[in-house]
Write a structure and sequence with these properties.
There is one protein chain. The chain has helices at 2-15, 55-60, 137-140, and strands at residues 32-38, 45-52, 72-82, 85-86, 95-100, 106-110, 121-122, 127-134, 148-150. A hairpin with a 6-residue loop joins strand 1 (32-38) and strand 2 (45-52). It has a single domain, classed as Protein of unknown function DUF192 (Jelly Rolls, Sandwich). 15% of the residues lie in helices and 32% in strands. It has a seven-stranded mixed β-sheet. The chain is of the alpha+beta class. The chain is globular and about 35 Å long.
Length: 160
Amino acid sequence: MRRAFLVILAVLATACLPEKTDGSRNGLSFEKQSVRIVRQDLPDVGLTVEIADTNAKRARGLMYRSELADDAGMLFLFPVRKRISMWMANTIVPLDMIFIDEYGKVREIVENTVPFSRDEVRSKDSVSAVLEIKAGQSKRLNIRSGDVIVHPFFKLEKAK
């Protein structure tokens, strides 16, 4: 009886452990890809991002991650342009959220979102993607509205 109790206790404790850094818990695996940020009057900067391109991946996002590298992030890709709402429920690391239109153009940046908050972070305009990076990185990297995110998802040839 005591042995069964200890086994159950160990299983429950393991289930409560933080997410693996690569987000592979619960069968979700995020592909890593490179993006380039074309900044106004500054050299381009590159990041390695995980791609959230399904409903399940977008719902999971960066939840339960205990760390995020300065040169990393997650790119949320949406099949339809719309006003997008994000939140920080179960998200440990504070983030900057960069809202991007279908042409890769940065439309809005919400800095330093609050970990574990269930308040909506909503884009003002219709967009096609959101890039989440470690809080403070958009300021450190001097990312601004009008910069362009280069990734195959975006229609760069039609950028305005």
